[in-house]
Amino acid sequence: MSCSRWSEWMSLRLDGLLARDQEEALLAHLAACQACQQQWEAMSWASSLLTSEPVVKPPADFTAKVERRLRQRELLRGRLMGSLKVCVGSVSIWGSAAAIALVLLTTLWTPSLRAVTLHVGFPLLANSVSMLSIVTRAGIAGARALCTTSTALLLFGYICLALALVASWTRVVALCRGKLSTRPE
Amino acid sequence: MEQEGQWVQAALGGDQRAFAHLVDAYKGPVYNVCYRMLGNPADAEDAAQETFIRIYTRLGLYDPQLKLSSWVLSVASHYCIDRLRRQHIKWLSLDDLPFGHQVEDREDLPEDLLLQDERRAQVQSLLQSLPAEYRMVIALRYWQDLSYEEIARAVGTTESAVKSRLHRAREMLAQQAIDRRMPIAQPEQAACHRKRVMTDVVF
């Protein structure tokens, strides 16, 4: 058997996993082989050094620190989700506003569709207001998660713009309706 | 064990107090593994905390059929090895390490504490000379008293691979001891069987 094989047995012996006959064979080989004897002495010395080293203990406030870190992580996650909601809310507001405005203007511009528009325009407007309400609520939820003054102000600005947009649509529709009703047949 | 299962379920539902109980139960083994892997208390504490954050976020992936201790140590070992790889840690030779520097500045300490410091420095410097995978099996074998099978589960390999790594690691440690002319004792003094009492957690 080669010395590297005996070396494997040395490792097994340190773990107490060598059978009695194997152990006797190993000891007989160690008595005859100086190189293996030296390696065994070094290996068992290193092993006893590791064994004598006690288990280290974490600091007393370790659990509290982990809890704090978890809370910070949750807060950060909440803020990221808040930012995402504000972004999605903004895009939704302006996207839906642009789409509705485009539809309204196109149909109002087409004489054959004008009457239909006035009847369909209001439901559309109502829908857009509902949508605005939903995305605004999402934005407010996001702002709560963010809890920063700057974002709250930004959100307030978006809401004002959205209200102005709704008011302008209402005004445009009212004007168009007034003009159509006073136009002679 | 049932208690642990309840803590896991509660933590999965977002109960951070229940998770704190799990941290209390496993902080010793996790911190110890991180300390032996990373070599200093500051990195070990940071790594152990990060390990528990990972455990919290991945608790849904835990298979209740497995022992929780094995899974926890598996997360810790993978995190430490990833961290070492990310840091491109420099494998120091034993001559480069600051042997006994902590001791030199603390002359007022009693002699046994000085010896303890010196021994700890020796242990850490020997461990740092090993590749991370070998160091991990040594840490789990010597300080967590795990069997080959448990080590294999924790590091995600086979029992024969664990046996081989332990053997190679011990060979390397022995070679380091010879090269550094360390005061090698008689083999009869070596403890072949671990009798360490696990106080922090019952595996």
Cα-to-Cα separation, first versus last residue of chain A: 114 Å
Largest interface (CB within 8 Å) is between: A-B, 39 and 53 residues
Secondary structural class of chain A: mainly alpha
How many helical elements of chain A? Answer: 6
What shape does the CA trace of chain A take? rod-shaped
Structural class of chain B: mainly alpha
Radius of gyration of chain B: 18 Å
What quaternary form is this? heterodimer
Radius of gyration of chain A, CA atoms, in whole angstroms: 40 Å
- Mean pLDDT, all residues of chain B: 81
Poorly predicted sequence stretches spanning 5 or more consecutive residues of chain B: 92-105, 187-203
% residues in beta strands of chain A: under 5%
Report on the architecture of this protein:
- The complex is a heterodimer of chains A (185) and B (203).
- Chain A folds into 2 domains: 3-52, no CATH class; 80-182.
- Helices cover 88% and strands 0% of the residues of chain A.
- Chain A is built from 6 helices and no strands.
- Chain A is rod-shaped, with a radius of gyration of 40 Å.
- The mean pLDDT of chain A is 78.
- Chain B has a single domain (2-91, 129-183), classed as PhyR, sigma-like (SL) domain (Butyryl-CoA Dehydrogenase, subunit A, domain 3, Up-down Bundle).
- Chain B has 9 helices and no strands.
- Chain B has helices at residues 2-12, 16-38, 41-57, 68-87, 101-104, 111-128, 132-142, 148-155, 159-179.
- The chains are: A mainly alpha (185), B mainly alpha (203).
- Chains A and B meet through helix 1, helix 3 and helix 4 of A and helix 2, helix 3, helix 6, helix 7 and helix 9 of B.
